[in-house]
């Protein structure tokens, strides 16, 4: 268990920076690049297929035990491992600047996979560090840092990057992203990790954890929640960028709507959600957010039916970001509640796996199927899944064990 709070201003800034940079490169290579390729004429079915490349982030649970073992052998020191990963992340981003995003798609895809592997590995270690630093009462703050950091990474990796790409091209854009990632590496070099540690158990970390983890009271109900909850949200988000391209928006405007309007509101929603966790129950908040999603995602129908004013585009993007940002601190706290001192990084990755897997699959199939059934049908499907999530939380949430003893 935690002996004390290990948070310092330096550690808070480092956690925030880690959460930002793990999304900067990956969001550019998985979101912004969709807008670039759609603008160049790529079909929706192809874009949906390329979205599946994001699965590299999903399967990080496969090597999470190795990260836990490495850190345990090095006396619980996460920062030394993070320095190595961050350095290779910078190198992999710089590597892609030497190629053309349109002509060298295969190389760019390989780079995307590599960046995804490194960013997801960084996330494994970052969650272990967060578990080490945060007490139970500080998990709301941890969720807010993670969500806000991800949104800031999205601002830089999607919003800012698309605007820069529109005017300065591929190489300049990618090198600037590498520079941003280097800032976190410098922070790691200067960071002196706290002596305040999580007490490790003697039992060795093994692959049996995969089966042992989900075989506890209430966790199957949590698993179903983690599978259901991201579907509607990720379908809506995945559809918005190609919709904006198809109705005539330029990459700079898409970057502004995505990276500035939506993201700023998302950060505000994340902070408010983290605060409200201290006042309202998690069940109440998830139900409220699901209702907001169910109705809000339908605003995308305005865009596909001719209402292409920037106000409607900004409204849709804002609703999607507010929904994501308000719900993630709650989901993050639920996951953190399940962690033990034995292998926190692995146990977090085990929970993130179904959540991210369904998000990636919903995103990929949502875009691909919209090429067959149309945008309107998939927008309604997204709203329907948010309604199903709301009903599930209403009926079954009380069975989830979400307070760690």
UniProtKB/TrEMBL annotation:
Organism: Arcobacter venerupis
InterPro entries: AmpG_permease/AT-1, MFS, MFS_dom, MFS_trans_sf
Keywords: Membrane, Transmembrane, Transmembrane helix, Transport
Entry membrane topology: Multi-pass membrane protein
Major facilitator superfamily (MFS) profile domain sequence ranges: 11-401
Designated name of the protein: Major facilitator superfamily transporter
Molecular function terms from GO: transmembrane transporter activity
Pfam families per UniProt: MFS_1
Subcellular locations according to the entry: Membrane
Chief site of localization: membrane
TM annotation in the entry: 12-37, 49-68, 80-99, 105-126, 147-165, 171-191, 220-244, 256-277, 284-304, 310-336, 348-366, 372-397
GO cellular component: membrane
């Amino acid at each position: 268990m935690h002996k004390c709070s290990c948070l310092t201003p330096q550690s808070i800034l480092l956690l925030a920076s880690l959460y930002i940079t793990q999304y900067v490169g990956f969001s550019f290579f998985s979101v912004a690049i969709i807008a670039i390729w759609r603008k160049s004429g790529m079909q929706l079915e192809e874009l949906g297929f390329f979205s599946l490349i994001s699965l590299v982030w999903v399967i990080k649970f496969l090597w999470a035990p190795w990260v836990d073992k490495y850190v345990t052998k090095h006396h619980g020191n996460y920062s030394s491992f993070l320095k190595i990963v961050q350095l290779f992340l910078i190198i992999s981003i710089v590597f892609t600047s030497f190629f053309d995003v349109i002509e060298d798609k295969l190389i760019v895809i390989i780079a995307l996979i590599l960046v995804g592997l490194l960013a997801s590995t960084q996330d494994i270690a970052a969650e272990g560090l967060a578990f080490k630093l945060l007490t139970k009462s500080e998990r709301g703050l941890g969720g807010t840092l993670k969500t806000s950091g991800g949104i800031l990474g999205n601002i830089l990796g999607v919003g800012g990057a698309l605007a820069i790409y529109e005017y300065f091209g591929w190489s300049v854009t990618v090198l600037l992203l590498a520079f941003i990632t280097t800032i976190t590496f410098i922070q790691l070099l200067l960071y002196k990790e706290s002596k305040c540690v999580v007490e490790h158990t003697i039992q060795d970390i093994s692959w049996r954890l995969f089966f042992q983890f989900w075989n506890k009271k209430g966790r199957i109900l949590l698993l179903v929640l983690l599978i259901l909850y991201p579907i509607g949200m990720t379908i809506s988000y995945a559809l918005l960028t190609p919709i904006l391209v198809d109705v005539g928006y330029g990459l700079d405007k898409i970057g502004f709507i995505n990276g500035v309007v939506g993201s700023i509101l998302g950060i505000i929603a994340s902070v408010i959600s983290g605060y409200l966790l201290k006042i309202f129950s998690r069940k109440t908040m998830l139900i409220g957010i699901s209702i907001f999603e169910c109705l809000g995602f339908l605003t995308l129908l305005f865009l596909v039916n001719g209402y292409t004013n920037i106000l409607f585009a900004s409204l849709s993007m804002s609703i999607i970001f507010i929904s994501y940002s308000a719900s993630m601190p709650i989901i993050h706290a639920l996951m953190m509640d399940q962690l033990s001192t034995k292998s926190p990084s692995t146990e977090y990755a085990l929970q993130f796996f179904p959540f991210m897997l369904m998000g990636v699959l919903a995103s990929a199939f949502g875009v691909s199927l919209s090429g067959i059934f149309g945008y309107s049908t998939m927008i309604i499907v997204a709203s329907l899944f948010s309604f199903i999530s709301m009903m599930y939380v209403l009926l079954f949430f009380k069975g989830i064990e979400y307070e760690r003893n």
